[in-house]
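ingest -> validate -> predict -> emit
validate: passed (alphabet ok, no gaps, 405 aa)
predict: started
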Amino acid sequence: MISNTDAFVWVMLAALLAAAIWLNIATAIGAPVSTTHSIVGGVLGAGIASGGMDIANWGKVGQIAASWVISPMMGGIIAAAFLYFIKHTITYRGKKMAESAGKSVPILVGIMAWAFSTYLVLKGLKKIWPTDIQTALAIGAGIGVFVYLVIRPIIGQRVKLISNDKQGVNRLFVLPLICAAALLSFAHGANDVANAVGPLAAINDAIIQGAISSKATIPLWVMMVGAIGIAVGLALYGPKLIRTVGTEITELDQMRAFCVALSAAITVILATHLGLPVSSTHVAVGGVFGVGFLREYLKTTYTQMVVDIQHHYHGEEEHKVEEFLKEFKIASIDEKASMLKELKARTGKTQLTKKERKRLQGVYRHELVKRTHLRRIIAAWLVTVPLSGLMAAFLYFTIRGMMLP
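emit:
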């Protein structure tokens, strides 16, 4: 709807500058915001400044705003589901933890191969070989089954060398996590670099053609600008955000981080199928929070069981309580349930009151997920589009004032 080539160039330039400024500010304060939403806000603000409110596609803007909630929620739920699966099939198996890992880890690696293969077929090959999601899922499933068959005997051999505890099981997730992180970085870079260099490609095409086209050609030098830019940005600013997402929100080990990476790929596939414009940044951060909140729930539940045991043993010798708790800790989830049932039947005592349980739950939640980071990140997400839009509008008027006689 912008017919003037110069005005179009100014809009895209203002959008790029505004998004770049906001992304640098957000990164400096440790807020992992969406490059996609920053660019969208910049284009929206500068476009409105140039052509008025009617120039915007408000239906699409509404979808993007909805993705602020949908992206992290989907990422968090899927990451929590995978972690719950790992805990119930591996870490809650007590003395059979390593043996159970030998059966479950190959399945998870196969799912990872399926998810990323599907993602790459949908996103990476669509320009070379257009395909629908059903075909991509079928190809991904075939690759996932192949990887599962290859990895199962390898994991089986490694299980014999690890200790029967969480630390030992975590060693099995090191290589799958590295692969998942590399594939997720590839997918994230491919998506976000496209957002960053899109306006640049549009500016270049408008200047060369002397007109505005619906699709701009992307020369090699534009792609090189994006590739070099993301590499330098990772080297300079990456460590700060890595610390924020990896350590400051909640504690991550190999199993939890694997769940986050896997959920990000699956969420993007689901969103693509549903036509939802989700942010890979929001998905990954949502996955971290999902893992953290599940840990809060499970830790609180376990603490309540321990306090229930102490409540039932009240008045008896301390060594009996310690002996029971030691056996309870290494028992499988089924054995824990049986032990608690027998204990309650033997003592006939009631459990803790709801008020006592609520107090314990609050204490453990504050220990496992930092609410200050949650509030700061959500606030940064909410202001990304409007703030980058306002900056872009201001920059558009500034550039136009400088260029016009």
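The first helix runs from residue 5 to 28.
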